[in-house]
Every structure is written in C-alpha cells, then in structure tokens.
Design goal:
With about 260 residues, this protein is of the alpha+beta class. It is about 40% helix and about 30% strand. A five-stranded antiparallel sheet has the order 5-4-8-7-6, sandwiched between helices. Strands 1-2-3 form a three-stranded antiparallel sheet, with helices on both faces. A hairpin with a 5-residue loop joins strand 7 and strand 8.
C-alpha cells in the first residue's frame, strides 16, 4: 500500500482523504506531505493530487505531481529560529527599544521601554508613537528623525526627552535605524535608546559646582591667580586685577613670571 509504506504516519490519514477525494473527481492543490526515502530520510513534498481518467472519462486513478520543499522548509525553520532569537534579544535588552511602521504606528515595544515609561506593550502596539508618547514640544523634531529614517537616512545619538505615564522625566540617547524587509524595501524604523537621565543629572550638578567655584574665585576678597603647566595665566580674579591694575583680559595666556613678577 502506497500510503502505509511511503507516507509518514502523521500524514497517512489526510493523504488517504486527499486520494479518496481525487478518486471521486475532487482534486487537491498544494497539499503538504512527508515522504520517507529507502534510506529512511524524510522529505517534505508539496503535492497536487489530480484525478486520472480513461478514454471514456471514467476515473482510473490518481496522479500526484509534487515539488520537494525539504530545503525550503529547513531554511524557513532556520529563519524562524533566528527571528525568535532576535525577538527575545530585543524584548530582554537592557535598553529601551521600539519600532514603528511606515505610518508611525508602534509595532515593537520591549520590556525596558515598558518599565521606563509605564506603558505596557498592549497599550502601545498599533498606536501612533509621536502623537501618543512624545511630548508636544518634541513632536516636530522626532517626526523629522523618523521621516529621515523612513527615507533611508539614519540618525545617531539624538537626545530625546520622554515623559512616563506617571509623570517621570527621562532623557534617552536614541539611534533611529531604517528597518527593511528581505528584499530591501523600507518597512519602518527601529529606535534603540540609552537612558542618560542619571548621567545628565550628574553632568548638570558638576557644571553647577564648577560655576559656583568660578564665581567664588572671581569674587573672592583675596587675590587669586592660576597658571597652566607652562606657566601661562589661566585665572586672574577681580581682587588681583584691582590690586595689580592688570585686567583679566591683559593677563590670560601671558607668562606669569616673565610679565607680572618683579625681577
């Protein structure tokens, strides 16, 4: 018997049904079955079951015309595996990652994005990114970045302010990358961000301290000067300018000893 001898067990019943239909004149196209070779190798075949008829149009059997799709199936499975791996990588990445389609609708929203902004994946998918999740004052610039990426012009290190669902402010350094399909057609944009909120706060604090020290030096009630490793003046405060009669402008960059110290 053809079916029990050459057809994989899980396909035997549906193959019998397809053959029975063809014997009744009902043909089947693109039916997928698994065959075993003499050596026991499994082959995936896409088959068309066609009714065979005699000279008087009577049904005399079935002809199966197939195409070996074993390699195609293997490639498809490998592509699916890679896609699953990439999907898990995106979802579990320790960086906010989102994706939009060509209409600006969210189609990717990883766990870090959800954790940071408070919007779950189900709340964002299918929603317009700019209109729903970007603050009004930043919508124009973000739209421009996305439109450039959709035209194939990618943007790196774009500083994007974000406001969470609960009112917390974040700053993300964003790379907007063009997303393409298997034939190179642009299908959207992927944004990969780095949360620099804490870094910006530290930098702002450091600048504040530096500004405070600069003001302290400048207004101190004592003469204060500074020189670099080559002895050139880098600091000359108000008290010293008043005392020496040399303005700050006259001293900066000049050798201290040669110009302002008596022999």
């Amino acid at each position: 018997d053809f079916v029990t001898t050459f057809i994989a067990q899980e396909f035997q019943q549906p193959v019998n049904e397809v053959l029975s239909l063809a014997l009744m004149g009902k043909e089947t196209a693109n039916f997928e079955i698994a065959l075993f070779t003499k050596a026991g190798t499994r082959r995936e075949v896409l088959i068309n079951a066609t009714t065979r008829r005699g000279p008087n149009d009577e049904v005399t059997g079935v002809i199966g015309v197939g195409q070996d799709i074993t390699q195609i199936r293997e490639i498809t499975k490998e592509q699916e595996r890679v896609a699953d791996d990439l999907s898990r990588l995106i979802d579990n990445a320790n960086a906010p990652i989102f994706g939009v389609d060509c209409d600006g609708l969210v189609n990717e929203w990883n766990r870090k994005s959800a954790e940071m902004l408070g919007y779950t994946k189900s709340e964002t998918i299918g929603k317009h990114l700019v209109e729903n999740f970007i603050q009004p004052e930043n919508r124009k610039s973000v739209s421009e970045v996305l439109q450039k990426a959709l035209a194939g012009e990618e943007t790196a290190n774009y500083e994007l302010p974000l406001l969470s669902k609960f009112g917390e402010r974040y700053t993300v350094l964003l790379n907007a990358t063009t997303r393409r399909d298997s034939i190179g057609k642009i299908i959207g944009v992927v944004g990969v961000g780095q949360d620099i909120t804490t870094l910006n706060r530290l930098m702002a604090e450091a600048k504040r301290v530096a500004d405070d020290l600069t003001r302290l030096i400048e207004t101190a009630n004592a003469p204060i000067f500074g020189v670099d490793t080559q002895g050139r003046v880098t600091e000359w405060n108000q008290k010293l300018a008043k005392l020496s009669a040399f303005s700050k402008k006259e001293t900066l960059g000049q050798p201290l000893v040669a110009n302002f110290i008596t022999p």
